[in-house]
Amino acid sequence: MSIVVVATHNAKKATELHRVLAAAGVEADVRGLDAFPAYPEPAETERTFEGNALLKARAAVAATGQLAVADDSGLEVDLLNGMPGVRSARWSGPDATDQRNLDLLIAQLADTEAADRTARFVCAMALVTPDGTEHLVRGVMEGRLVLEPRGTNGFGYDPIFVADGNSVTNAELTPEQKDAISHRGQAVRAMVPLLRSVLTQPLVEPVETKEAP
Length: 213
Prior knowledge:
This protein is an alpha/beta fold. 30% of the residues lie in helices and 21% in strands. The radius of gyration is 19 Å and the shape is globular. The protein contains 5 helices and 6 strands, in the order βαβαβαβββαα. The chain has a 6-stranded mixed β-sheet with strand order 2-1-3-4-5-6. The longest helix has 17 residues, at 183-199.
């Protein structure tokens, strides 16, 4: 079974990718970075989700020699001019945690009207192969923010995000319900045919040549 490296230490992301791939009938040994020796991971210095996803996937391929998938995702809040954006995971500073990020964002939106708290989750996902082939896909989930966290599922900003068409937060959805509509679920599903194509490519045996007499 082919190995697919998910360039993250977040076990939930690796599990999510494995779950969606399995549902699509794609067999793969999906492993997060904790399954490999540590290596210097790149700083997420790009200004776009796509740029950061490529940085992480390229580094994982170089370190492991395996096919790698990486994503960069975040929350874009219209009242904050699209921020936190690529800074979503580090919104509350160098020692950021999910809870600190959540508390800070709630504080920043405390005096706003519910109708104005429109936002979206964005996920860019990169696939990089050991031969240098690269692919990018993107998923977007539109919604709005509430100021009172609800639910215990999910992670990050899920407890205050209500997707369009829903009345519950992402953290109140089951993993399967969230997969069906989430930005990451969209990106993973868009990645499935690319992974299927790469994983099922036949190996090309080297052709021996003879020197001319």
